[in-house]
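Work through this protein:
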Amino acid sequence: MKKSFWFLIILSLLVVIFSVQNAEVVPIRFIVWQGELSLAILMILTFLFGLIVGAIYYAVSIKKKKKDKNPVGDIAFNDKTEEEISDNQEEENSNETKFNE
């Protein structure tokens, strides 16, 4: 398995251990909403929220890179150099003259 997978597993375990050790209830205020929540749940939710935001950002950046690579759409670019193209054209022209003779 990839190293990044194991890194995420270890990071997740560390967050869970930290959250369990800090399980006391804490007051939460967000704009006009107020309440109390276990610090463990708060930490896990915060971690998951960050994970989701990061995954969305990553997906959008990958999609953008693919779009920038091929701005025309589904049409693939020709990877040949100008020299290879001219060589192919010369070869086709010589084949046509041989066929016509």
Remarks:
- Strands lie at 25-30, 33-38.
- Residues 39-69 form the longest helix (31 residues).
